[in-house]
Specification:
single chain, mainly beta, OB fold (Dihydrolipoamide Acetyltransferase, E2P), five-stranded antiparallel sheet, 3 helices, 18 strands
């Protein structure tokens, strides 16, 4: 009998408050299926498909209801309440699923929020949720280089970039060099697959392919200047951090787009600003 999984067990004994179920090995003991979960007409020896979890008193119990997520599955659950030891998630069962504080990112979850989690067994053999979904993501995606995908950011790293769960189930990374704007945990991104690693993990980019990206970058620069009275208060020699913050693009992308706008005669570059040319 395994916690967190659907399994077929046999009815061993009927009692006023339900039935006791056993597996193939009698030494594993038995588990109660409460009366409200027992189908009409059930007899000793019948087989029932059930899900096993622990109740509020840490007793193993069976249910015929299927939870929204089973052991090691990844998906979205809603935060119902934040308590003293963590957040309680709507699991689809009588008992809510605990998301301990130490399994949450630096920014704690809030009531009503939908969070991407995986189900795991803690040291006390209790089913809990974690937002560290990396170990539970699949590396066998159907995607190839050039495909467009959608995923959710579940972790960020200054050294590596943004870790993404594509389709909430496949392991992917937006490398640091591809982060042209700040991303945070929970952001949903549309990205392009740039590589499929030998182990099956995906590398992603939130940039367009070069020609399309430059057109968009030029439009962004021109629109920003229009909104700012016809100029930008910095030129292409400004620090990369300012460009990333102000324009959501890398310095190379910014310089490439500015250079093209200059060739087209749409801008002029001064010592401390870029201005639109009067046409």
């Amino acid at each position: 009998m395994k916690l967190g999984e659907l399994q077929t067990l046999r009815v061993e004994k009927t009692v006023p408050f339900g039935v006791y179920l056993t597996g193939e090995d009698p030494e594993e003991g038995r588990v109660l299926l409460p009366r409200s979960q027992v189908p009409a007409g059930t007899s000793e020896g019948d087989e029932l498909e059930v899900f096993l979890y622990k109740d509020s008193e840490d007793r193993m119990i069976a249910t015929r209801r299927k939870p929204k997520l089973m052991l090691h599955q990844v998906g979205y659950l809603t935060v119902l309440q934040v308590g003293r030891i963590g957040a309680f998630l709507d699991w689809g069962l009588d008992k809510d699923l605990l998301l301990p504080f130490h399994e949450q990112p630096r920014e704690r979850v809030k009531e009503g929020q939908e969070v991407l989690v995986a189900v795991y067994l803690d040291k006390s053999e209790r089913l809990c949720a974690t937002m560290n979904v990396y170990p539970y993501l699949s590396k066998e995606s159907p995607y190839k280089t050039g495909d467009q995908v959608t995923g959710v950011v579940y972790e960020t790293s200054r050294n590596f970039g943004a870790f993404v769960a594509v389709d909430s189930m496949f392991s992917a990374l937006i490398p640091k060099r591809e982060l042209v704007r700040d991303l945070k945990v929970g952001d949903v991104v549309s990205a392009r697959v740039t590589a499929v690693k030998p182990d099956g993990k995906l590398d992603l980019s939130i940039r367009e392919k070069a020609p399309l990206q430059m057109d968009r970058d030029m439009d962004r620069i021109m629109n920003r200047m229009k909104d700012n009275g016809g100029f930008l208060p910095f030129n292409d020699r400004v620090a990369p951090e300012i460009i990333r913050l102000e324009m959501q693009m890398s310095k190379n992308e910014f310089k490439r787009a500015v250079g093209h706008l200059l060739k087209l005669g749409k801008i002029e570059i001064g010592s401390d600003a870029i201005r639109m040319k009067q046409m």
